[in-house]
Amino acid sequence: xxxxxxxxxxxxxxxxxxxxxxxxxxxxxxxxxxxxxxxxxxxxxxxxxxxxxxxxxxxxxxxxxxxxxxxxxxxxxxxxxxxxxxxxxxxxxxxxxxxxxxxxxxxxxxxxxxxxxxxxxxxxxxxxxxxxxxxxxxxxxxxxxxxxxxxxxxxxxxxxxxxxxxxxxxxxxxxxxxxxxxxxxxxxxxxxxxxxxxxxxxxxxxxxxxxxxxxxxxxxxxxxxxxxxxxxxxxxxxxxxxxxxxxxxxxxxxxxxxxxxxxxxxxxxxxxxxxxxxxxxxxxxxxxxxxxxxxxxxxxxxxxxxxxxx
Length: 310
Prior knowledge:
With 310 residues, this protein is of the alpha/beta class.
């Protein structure tokens, strides 16, 4: 089984102590976002966890905890965008984030860090030229610390439309997407980086840009030296290439304050959830409820044994 930690919130940045306690206790409880009283108990033993994918914009708090994950296979989806605090309100400086990126690469190797430049948004401040210049700058700084970069274009989710209007964010045309793709591909190639897109329907293959699998059975196979038998994630949108995983995060719990985020729809709820966080709890943010129904999820490894190959 693959664990996603997490598309819903930045666990490495804000909940690394909690995660470490979950690893030590060997299980985690996760609420179903569609039915909050339905709680799944998920085993976190090395015998069933094939890989953990960490998603973060600032995994600095994880650096001193990596030694506790030595028995696990893992890699990072590390987002570094060009936005300032008008768009990403609570992040460290770009200099600090890049330093964290390099420290992480030194410890775990460039293969296990995917640089994410996403989502790309346009307004009067963040123009085509701005993005191309910043991508070039970041690629030059990170080229020895990662092997691949993944980018995407902003999606206009209903829950973020107020932020879209407040920040003057405009629709990106097909022509503009092609201009970005052509320039990004050229820059990536100059810096020996593979490049792909996350959950984008547009065909950019003429620029040697493929569709990504952010939760990637191919990369996991390369890291562990063992093939996996696992299907595409049916819970993700059609354009997403990821294979199946279990997400242990929770919506409305990330404090990064990114105006484009689909995982937070209420700043007040985020504050309440974070206040209710207990690093010793099996749940990420909420206390146990008398109406909760706890089910232990059947967990199994997706590794293909030698016998299954013949």
